[in-house]
Write a sequence for this structure.
């Protein structure tokens, strides 16, 4: 019987299948960050042993200061979760990429970068953006603290088999359109719960032509469409990306692995519960204007008018959103001024993202405060070696150390109340970047352009600067 | 985990779609240990006005909803971040059941693990309930998990679906780690054969 990529991976991991179809799955890799303390506390209360500490890696990211990373955080209160992660992993014998280590970074950037994420595996983490790792052809999904405790105690999870959805994106992208625009467009088409209960596979020529980094940006935001996981069949690009990474298979294991990985694709006649087709040519540089990731439009668009909404509760919700966002119906997106810019997060902080932003920043000057937070210490170093950091600094951007930073503001990097932030992160929820913050999600180049112009800018209209 | 008991409580309507877990509990409270009461963090920033006082119009701030155990919410409730603290906040504030047309999946699982019952109904059924709660002279709802039924104040009953295993977990207040460890031998056998077939996965090199 023809199988989907997902089914091939799932079936390898089933230990027990219950009558109702729920399966006990073996978990190959588990990543944990500061937030995992709830799970460690629970195990401690219940006096349980960690079964396979060798399959978990700890990474500090959410609370780490981007200004004084060597301290963890300047603020004592924010240092505590980092210290808990250090103590918990040490006690359990779990390897830690803590503050100051060359491997440290955002958990979803570090995993692939260090070769912890591999095709065909099941990888979990107590974080909803774990879907990112699926870009390398594995099944990766986010779990809650109780499930983290379950993984630590058993190295398994009970899971209901999700339905499968294939999203086919075909054709060539127009100039200025990148992976972030594809995913924002897609969510605006299928909705913030369009993939709830589904495992997404992204396929089609557009996806094949994306770099591994671009694929990670797409898979990362699967959760914003309600999907718990997103995946892409591994190919030569994937193998090249993984070759010689720290934890990638070596020598004869590498050859064995690649032979196996080449079997990981959806068979020609494999059946999905749902298929969605998107034309690459329909996608423009896009951004969000509201408080749900589905509220995205091409940069040439206008703020919708509640008057055109016939459903009363939807109209009220829209009015409330516009009030929260401080926006008027009919305003052109390009007329919206921004107060600050954040370039970073597990969606868009990889080297390719920084190159795209630097290409816009080169030789120009920012109009508003803007920070650039690389996704890992390795990327930071690479960007410094390539001269990107200097371009940013010369243009007035604040060049920071790695961490989650203003994506969620847990480390103290906040957007103040009422301020409008052009952000390359993944969530425009009310208060996500700080109480009262107003977030517009967009690509790195668009965010850099917003910093330079002080307002939302169509990247296609910004003339390149000759230096 | 606390076993789920039959509910007979007032119900509050929260008619806003896509209530994400950042709204249920803002990120700055996530460093709080479970032993602290999370109830006061629930909807922290949306139930207060700009000066920080409780907004009397927010549904859970009204006198009749102070003790409510049931929330009747809209589509995609609990979407977004996997933070289990969102469930801790609801639970500690006394909420034992959320009824909605759909849930964020991680939130749904987190709820079951903490003794909070998520009930999925069609949106038109939810709209009926909102309507009944608005017009009936009391807003008491009974939720009977054993019989998978909701009794509404106008005498109407609605049946709901839940998978049998999750139902049992809730009713008995089971922790599945013990259950899973009964399969220890099978788990180990699986790991052993996996290490032969795919040696590069067996451990982190
Ligand atoms: S960068 Fe943002 S979305 Fe990604 S793991 Fe950190 S907080 Fe979560």
């Amino acid at each position: 019987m023809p199988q989907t990529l997902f089914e091939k991976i799932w079936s390898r991991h089933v230990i027990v299948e219950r009558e109702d179809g729920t399966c006990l799955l073996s978990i190959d890799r588990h990543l944990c960050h500061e937030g995992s303390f709830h799970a460690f506390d629970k195990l401690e209360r219940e006096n349980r042993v960690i079964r396979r500490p060798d399959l978990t890696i700890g990474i500090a990211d959410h609370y780490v200061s981007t200004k004084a990373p060597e301290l963890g955080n300047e603020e004592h209160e924010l240092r505590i979760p980092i210290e808990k992660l250090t103590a918990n992993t040490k006690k359990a014998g779990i390897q830690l990429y803590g503050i100051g280590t060359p491997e440290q970074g955002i958990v979803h950037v570090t995993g692939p970068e260090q070769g912890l994420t591999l095709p065909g595996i099941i990888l979990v983490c107590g974080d909803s953006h774990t879907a990112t790792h699926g870009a390398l052809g594995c099944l990766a999904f986010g779990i809650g603290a109780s499930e983290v405790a379950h993984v630590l105690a058993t190295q398994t999870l009970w899971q209901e088999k999700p339905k499968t959805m294939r999203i086919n994106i075909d054709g060539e992208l127009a100039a200025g359109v990148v992976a972030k625009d594809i995913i924002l467009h897609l969510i605006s088409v299928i909705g913030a719960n369009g993939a709830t209960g589904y495992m997404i596979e992204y396929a089609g020529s557009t996806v094949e032509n994306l770099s591994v980094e671009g694929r990670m940006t797409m898979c990362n935001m699967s959760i914003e469409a309600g999907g718990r996981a997103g995946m892409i069949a591994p190919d030569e690009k994937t193998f090249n990306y993984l070759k010689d990474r720290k934890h990638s298979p070596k020598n004869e294991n590498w050859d064995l692995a690649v032979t196996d990985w080449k079997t990981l694709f959806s068979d020609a006649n494999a059946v999905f519960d749902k298929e969605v087709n998107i034309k690459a040519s329909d996608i423009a540089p896009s951004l969000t204007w509201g408080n749900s990731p589905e509220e995205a439009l091409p940069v040439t668009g206008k703020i919708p008018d509640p008057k055109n909404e016939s459903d009363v509760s939807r109209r009220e919700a829209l009015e409330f959103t516009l009030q929260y966002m401080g926006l008027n119906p009919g305003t052109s997106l390009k007329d919206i001024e921004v107060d600050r810019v954040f370039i970073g997060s597990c969606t868009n902080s990889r080297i390719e993202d920084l190159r795209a932003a630097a290409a816009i920043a080169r030789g120009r000057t920012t109009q508003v405060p803007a920070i650039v937070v690389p996704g890992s210490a390795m990327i930071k170093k690479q960007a410094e070696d390539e001269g990107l950091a200097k371009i940013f600094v010369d243009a007035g951007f604040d060049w920071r150390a790695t961490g989650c930073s203003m994506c969620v503001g847990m480390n103290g990097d906040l957007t103040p109340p009422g301020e409008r932030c052009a952000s390359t992160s993944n969530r425009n929820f009310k208060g996500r970047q700080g109480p009262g913050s107003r977030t517009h999600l967009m690509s790195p180049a668009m965010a850099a352009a917003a910093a330079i112009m002080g307002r939302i800018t169509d990247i296609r209209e910004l003339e390149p600067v000759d230096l | 985990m606390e076993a789920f008991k039959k509910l007979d409580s007032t119900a509050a309507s929260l008619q806003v779609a896509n209530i994400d877990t950042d709204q249920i509990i803002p990120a700055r409270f996530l460093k709080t240990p479970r032993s602290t009461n999370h109830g006061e963090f629930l909807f922290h920033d949306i139930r207060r006005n700009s000066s920080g006082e409780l907004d009397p119009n927010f549904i859970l701030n009204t006198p009749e909803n102070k003790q409510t155990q049931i929330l009747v919410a809209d589509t995609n409730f609990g979407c977004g971040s996997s933070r289990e603290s969102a469930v801790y906040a609801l639970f500690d504030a006394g909420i034992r059941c959320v009824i909605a047309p759909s849930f964020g999946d991680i939130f749904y699982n987190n709820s079951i693990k903490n003794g909070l019952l998520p009930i999925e109904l069609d949106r038109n059924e939810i709209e009926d309930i909102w309507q009944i709660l608005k017009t009936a002279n009391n807003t008491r709802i009974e939720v009977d998990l054993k019989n998978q039924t909701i009794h509404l104040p106008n005498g109407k009953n609605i049946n709901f679906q839940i998978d049998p295993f999750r139902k049992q977990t809730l009713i008995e207040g089971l922790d599945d780690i013990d259950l899973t460890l009964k399969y220890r031998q099978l788990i180990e056998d699986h790991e052993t054969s996996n290490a032969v077939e795919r040696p590069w996965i067996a451990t982190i090199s």
